[in-house]
């Protein structure tokens, strides 16, 4: 487990070359989190134990795994002054089927957590358990994913009660032609996106000047649909940190963001926030207004997002989020049905796992956290309404 000392671009190039590369492991994402109380610590695993400053090294020392570890300290004194939590969002990145490498990385992370005085270290890599909806003919189980779960359990890791990211998602393969992509959609979805076109809905790329309006629309969506969002400064930080290059071409290791905005008669009615990295486009945030919803702007937005991502050379469009339980009892069911219509495939992953060097502190933390989060969510809802003047 070697500290990485290279440039941000070198880090992004390195992780883009590894299996299951993810936007949340990029240098830019770590810098966003660093502005909100987290310390970013990038590490690599290579063939020899030396500090790595750039991915283009001799074959003997070529990095085989990487992890952007985020550390959050607690402002307490006494014996607990070193207490912290560690989080590896959507990582570590490596070939999880390489048993020796997997054991080495997990072992090093456990030792690191102990040395840091961490209550726990959390990891939630996109290791697949299967594809398709359980109980359907299209379901495929992946035995390797189950074996990795067993290895985590054997090492003392626990399936986390706090699943920060979505465990499951919907992926759209962008390699077919546009006609084939349309054919894979459900008939009702194709009808709705064509209805949007007939009703005068247009879609354009957003600009920096659109970002304040983008947040207001997102806040309106949160109040209407009853979910929690952060303050405007957070989203402005995310969007501006991943600002789109002046000339957008086919990037593979430069992460960036673009908003797509749907308009009716020149007035914004819906938008989506797209992020690109390592051949994948991710639909991270979506927002809409009550006006003109009958014109189906969200259907046309998603189609234009697929076309844009394909134009930029992306192979996968990640719709970011699917239910844990694939039935109507899950809060994501309604959104999932919309995503299903776009013709994607469900990916089920192992989710987040925690390793704790101190079981007693971990138990206290997991008992206290839900209560704290309930209070914060309640305050967040009130603040969002106040910001909107609602």
Written overview of the protein:
The chain is of the alpha+beta class and 390 residues long. The chain has 2 domains: 2-127 and 144-161 and 352-388, Aminopeptidase (3-Layer(aba) Sandwich), CATH 3.40.630.30; 175-314, Aminopeptidase (3-Layer(aba) Sandwich). The chain is built from 11 helices and 16 strands. It has helices at 8-16, 27-34, 99-115, 143-154, 178-184, 187-198, 211-225, 232-241, 297-311, 333-340, 359-388, and strands spanning 2-3, 39-45, 65-73, 84-88, 118-123, 128-131, 140-141, 158-159, 168-173, 201-205, 256-264, 267-277, 280-288, 316-318, 345-349, 353-355. The strands form 2 sheets. A 9-stranded mixed beta sheet has the order 7-6-15-9-14-13-12-11-10, with helices on both faces. It has a 7-stranded mixed beta sheet with strand order 1-2-3-4-5-16-8, with helices on both faces. The longest helix has 30 residues, at 359-388. The chain starts with a strand and ends with a helix. The model is unreliable at 49-60 (pLDDT under 50).
């Amino acid at each position: 487990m070697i500290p990485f000392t290279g440039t941000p671009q070198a880090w992004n190039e390195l992780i883009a070359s590894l299996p299951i590369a993810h936007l949340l492991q990029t240098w830019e994402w770590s810098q966003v989190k660093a502005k909100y109380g987290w310390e970013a610590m990038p590490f690599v695993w290579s063939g020899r134990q030396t500090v790595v400053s750039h991915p283009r090294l001799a074959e003997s020392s070529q990095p085989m795994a990487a992890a952007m570890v985020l550390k959050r300290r607690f402002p307490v004194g006494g014996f607990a002054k070193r207490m912290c939590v560690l989080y590896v969002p959507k990582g570590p990145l490596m070939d999880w089927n390489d048993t020796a490498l997997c054991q080495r990385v997990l072992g090093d992370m456990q030792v690191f957590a102990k040395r840091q005085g961490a209550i726990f270290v959390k990891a939630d890599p996109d290791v697949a358990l299967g594809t398709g909806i359980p109980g359907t003919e299209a379901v495929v189980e992946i035995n390797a994913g189950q074996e990795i779960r067993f290895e985590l359990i054997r090492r003392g890791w626990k399936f986390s009660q706090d699943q920060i990211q979505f465990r499951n998602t919907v992926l759209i393969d962008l390699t077919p032609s546009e006609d084939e992509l349309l054919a894979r959609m459900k008939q009702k979805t194709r009808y709705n996106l064509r209805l949007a076109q007939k009703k005068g809905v247009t879609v354009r790329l957003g600009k920096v000047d659109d970002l304040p309006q983008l947040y207001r629309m997102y806040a309106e969506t949160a109040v209407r649909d009853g979910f929690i969002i952060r303050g405007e400064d957070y989203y402005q930080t995310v969007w501006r940190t991943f600002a789109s290059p002046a000339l957008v071409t086919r990037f593979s290791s430069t992460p960036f963001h673009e908003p797509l905005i749907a308009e009716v008669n020149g007035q914004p009615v819906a938008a989506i926030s797209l992020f690109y990295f390592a051949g994948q486009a991710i639909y991270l945030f979506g927002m809409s207004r009550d006006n003109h919803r009958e014109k189906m702007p969200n259907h046309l937005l998603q189609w234009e997002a697929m076309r844009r991502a394909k134009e930029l050379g992306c192979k996968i469009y990640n719709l970011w989020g699917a239910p844990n339980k694939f039935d109507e009892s899950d809060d994501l069911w309604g959104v999932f049905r919309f995503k299903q219509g776009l013709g994607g495939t469900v990916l089920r992953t192992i989710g987040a796992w925690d390793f704790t060097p101190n079981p007693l502190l971990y138990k206290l933390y997991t008992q206290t956290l839900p209560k704290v989060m309930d209070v914060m969510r309640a305050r967040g809802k009130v603040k969002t309404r106040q910001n909107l003047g609602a």
